[in-house]
Amino acid sequence: MEKMWAGRTEGALSREADDFNSSIHFDSRMYRQDIAGSMEHATMLAVCGIIEEQESEQIIDGLQGILDDLDSGALAIDPDAEDIHMFVEAELTKRIGDVGKKLHTSRSRNDQVALDIRLYLRDEIREIRALIRDLIAAVCEQAEKNQDAIMPGYTHLQRAQPITFAQHLLAYAMMLRRDDGRLSDAAARMNYSPLGSCALAGTTYPIDRMFVARQLGFSGITENSLDGVSDRDFCVELLSALSLTMTHLSRFSEEIILWSSWEFKFVELDDAYTTGSSIMPQKKNSDMAELVRGKTGRVYGDLIALLTVLKGLPLAYNKDMQEDKESVFDAVDTVKMCLRVFAPMIRTMRVNKPNMYAAAQKGFLNATDLADYLTKKGMPFRTAYKLVGGLVADCIAKGKTLEDVSLAEYRAASELFDEDVYAEISLETCVGKRVSAGSTGPESVKAQIRSVQEFLQNEKDFY
Predict the structure, then answer these.
(1) What is the pTM of this model?
(2) Which of 147, 257, 309, 399 has the smallest C-beta neighbourhood within 10 Å, fewest atoms?
(3) Which of 156, 278, 406, 436 is catalytic?
(4) Which domains, from first to last, does the chain contain?
């Protein structure tokens, strides 16, 4: 196949160089966006009097035919084509003759590919955000069902204070809400059309860039033609947002892996999201969560790869920038795959409330509440902290819990202790009296659930 750029040279490459230079095997996924952009470009050329109306209609009809045939499978993308842009243009010229050669008037592949990837990623962001919202909904459903499930809260992976499983889950809902917001912001910043920047310097034709931008749903146009063709900030920003999303999924996965182990047995994953062992018949492995945790590094790698490609590039376009697509496509595909398995894994997860409660009864999780009990009766907190620390040390030595300490022993430590101390240090009381906003207390958890539900119902900010 003769190269579209043949002229200055013969356009003849060695087979190895041609394969190395080609991007058709990964940019072919953008064929719909490439054709949509070309249709609006052809419309604009006619509106501006650059080509005849009849020619524009002929080009658009030809492009629609190519789109229909690609969608139906009647037309296969030629793997020998250099890229999707050249394939579509060559196919168009084959179908409608020389009129098809007019389509590329006042544009370059530089601004064409910059347009295509923005259109493609804009669509992908919307799909990823929908998947994130589905996961948030799954988390919220589990939280609503487990508002009464008391478990140990941890710091340093040491039992710290009693909380509800609902509150623990809702922490991930808040992380995922921020992920949704970052993706929305990334979409808003990428939503400017570079078409009309041409190779780097603009064009001598009287084009209307804003017309095409409006037709394609952009907020406006890129204001500098060099920046328009060389900017890939939006790809980096998306990869950064996706990396943070994977951070959250990885942290969640780690906890699911721990919770489903025999050492915890807080949850049990549905068989549909676990695997077994080839040699140990008793095993039920949380492989889906482990894979999500593992694939996080892959998305981080995509981000670092693109940053490294861009860091030394002079303006404007350089062939290095062809490397943007494989990184960003891989990250998009990976995140979507992880989200699609994560939401149903959470929805079908079974919660072992008795095991959670039993774990919360160990480890002196109510020690802070015992110190607060004394503080509310007038003892300085640091004094109360030291006194309770001594009581805990004595309990450990004697193999007792704070609930096992007799009233006489308490009073020997401080006259401020009374019979109400036992009610004050019960797990239910420790959780129930948390009244600050955002806390593990029942009213606060209900408010958090309502907030998440309202977020999911509010579509006005869904890009």
Answers:
(1) 0.92
(2) 399
(3) 156
(4) 15-105 (1.10.275.10), 118-146+162-200+218-356 (1.20.200.10), 359-457 (1.10.40.30)
